[in-house]
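Final report, Chapter 2: Outcomes

The project's central promise was a pipeline that accepts a single protein chain and returns its three-dimensional structure in a standardized token representation, suitable for archiving and comparison. That pipeline is now operational. To close this chapter, we reproduce one record exactly as it appears in the project archive, with the input sequence first and the structure output second.
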Amino acid sequence: MPTNPLASIEAYEALIYSLPDVFPHIRISTLVVASIGPVTAVVRGEVHFGQGLYLRVLEVVNFRQRRIERYGYELWKGNEELWWYDSWPHPDLPELRSTDPHHKHIPPDIKHHRVPAPGIGFAAPNLPLLMREVEQEHLSK
């Protein structure tokens, strides 16, 4: 298997479908990797952690370029959205330049309150980092 999970759909499927084995707080994963072209796949679904927490995931991955083309990650507790990450550029916001276009929306005013997203990007899988974030910040309290 290639060392870069973004090198092939098979390698990325292995990463996605092994997440519950690697992260014991995952109770249910409905993540599915679906080919949408000769070199592109979409990853879509939810990861449920218990305590009402679940992560909604949408990624488009280009295996020829070995990169995530776009993504959206939303953490919910019941009907309350706790945060989300996206890659929509905001070049007019100097506070986001360090990780542009990657950023996180957080309360208060979750739609407009954005902070840099170190570690999130297009060149490597984001989901392991997000699983650790959920475990450390929301489940280990």
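Archive annotation: The longest strand covers residues 40-50.
This record, like all others produced under the grant, will remain available to the consortium after the project formally closes.
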